[in-house]
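Lab channel / #folding
Pinned by the channel admin:
"Please post every new chain as: sequence first, then the structure tokens as a reply. Keep commentary short and put observations after the output so the thread stays searchable."

First post following the new format, from NK:
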Amino acid sequence: MPPVHKPTVIQYFRTGLYTRRSALFAPLRVLGMQVMLMTDALIDGQDMELIDTYQLQRRPGFSRFCSQQLAGSEIINQFMGHRNSAGTVFPLFDSNQRVAKFSSTTITTLWTKGNANQAFTEMVQDQLYIANGTANGQKRYDTTGGALHGMGIPAPAAAPTLAAVTTRNATFWQPNTSYANLAVLMDSNGNVQEAIVGGGTSGSTVPNWSLSFNTATADGSQSWFNLGAPVQWQPSSTFPGMQIGQVIIDSNGNIQQRASNGTSGATQPTWSTTIGATTTDGTFSWTCMSNKGAQTVYSGYQYMYVYSTQAPTVVGGYYHRSDGSPVTASTGPVFGAYSYALSGAFSTNADVSSVDIYRTRDGGSTFDYAGSVVNNTGGGTWTFTDNVADSALNASLIIPLGTALLSDPPPGQTGTHSPAADAIAFIVAWNGRLWGISGSKVYFTAGPEVDNGDQNACWPPANVFTFPGQVQALTGTSVGLLVWLEDAVKIITGGPTTLSYYSLDLLDNFGISSPNCVTKDGDTITALLTSGQVFSLNVNSKTELSAFIGDLVQAFPENASYLTTHRNGLDNGLFLCDGSANILRYGLNVQAWSPMYKPVGGIKALRSIETSVGNYTLCAGRATAAGFILGRDLTSVQDEGQNYTNCFVTIGNMVLSQPLEPLVPVYYVAGYFAAGGTVPAIAVLANEITGSTGPGFATIPYFQEEPPLGATPSTTLMQRNWNLYDIPSMRNSLLMHHLQVRISFPQENFASTIFGLALKHDTTD
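Reply from TO:
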């Protein structure tokens, strides 16, 4: 007879599911200098979970988190969770129909998409930014006002129109303007120019003014005649060198033109202020060319305007503005009190509430805020009378030149200057900016380079990186922004200024096929790779987590699976869902995989999000339409009230004797389980490596209390043992090299728990 052996006891289950290994021998694990034989390893199982106390338990179920049902054909693509600046939690989902906020009782639509593309969201302060890769599929949801808006504002297409004086008087040059005959202005060279073709129209750009007296300048269908630079009036002078037709500025500031020869008087005459009238000055005579008064603008003014959500001087509320319109031509010098009318086009964009006018100071180059007009989204023309002194301009509100396009709407939005096909599809915040994906490109916002408006709605077309292939996702870390391709990982680092960002190669042959297959836990990133492996990586290293169950993970579709990290109090884990029927859980504390979950009814979207302050829920969406939002529920072991179809674990192979050593008898299997519920079924597979062929597992039909004699049965623990002799097929020999033990629980609503397992190798009591 074989020698008596001590019982084989499994007190804890530490290893979890380990399928990619020898089917004959128990796997090994090297811990430091020690090599451990993992006799507790599971080779198979379903709907059981390895919990942090190293026991196996019927997994928690998915209960209805929200009592409101989804629409008839609605399927959830993904879950998102955010907080605004007030600390209000926004649990969200994106479906094939909409982006919506949900609670335990309600679903509130934020955006009806009109397409099935998955949308991605990012919250900055009180604004929720959304993108889904379609034309005008980039949105901003104001969480304080509860309203949906477009992201960004298109700039005005044309410069404002400035109404110059067109009568015979002192004026200034503007494009496409018809001036009266003999109207005069001072050009940028300091010469007075006289309109000599009444009824003509100036050109679209400032003409190249003639420099010499008595020469003409062509300007569209208008012509100008150079009257020279004004000279100073002198007493008792013949004004040598001054010709008839040249001009002076009189003591009133008006332009007077020499009309004759002679000698001026000893004192200035009383100048006529009637245009065309003559003033006698000694034996001299002068013709009045203007009566507007003294020169008030010396270098000139320029204008532009923007569209904004509200006047920039309004305190409180969301504020954003467009890029500036094209700039007007400079007025050049202006005579008389400055008060002129501007006009331009209203915006038909529903987000625009205000038209804001900006102007340079006399001789300046920056555009300061001058005033606003209430916008009319029905269209039409606005007007604004500018009589604002330079000192009254708001120097704290400055608009950069529109050619910089710093405030351009994001790619995909109406009015963007980025290529029409580049619609932002994925969005994430990193390094004080929003970053978005469009195909092989990564765009980023202007960030701190915009100090007037919403930095996160400003997407300059030049702020872009291009990569060799479709970009799948972006993940922010403390050292850079990871850029995930299907077969590589790049990193964008540098900043915070735009020109200091740069990209580097990080990992080759290491990529993802879906943005739902990467999850972030602090600076630790975990991803299901295109190669079918689950890797965890940080700034220093990477580790494969799926090595023990690589054969199972390979069956998960990399372009349709979901990966998420869940932490909520004592509940934690890395969850991998195939997007239809199967879920795998990696315990973050025990660092081991649980058997496969097969949720009743199937699961598509799976993600852990904050659903109330400080509470995170592993949210799940059905793979079929018109379902309910589910949540992992530690108080339930059912899926929406339905018992699991199967619930078991297979432990082994447990090697009892090595090859060429004597076989070891196994007389009893003892199990220790949670009290209550139905006693599980125990089956053994002796000296075989698979139960799918050959004799298969043999179920032990009867059980008894453990220990059978000498103790009062426990009321807090279910202790049972099974006599293998009760299996008719095994009565001839109970001698074994190795065996597998399968523990199967019935379909019932009970948190069945396995505390330990033992094999008895003799028949003594």
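NK: The chain is about 0% helix and 40% strand.
TO: also worth noting, The mean pLDDT is 94.
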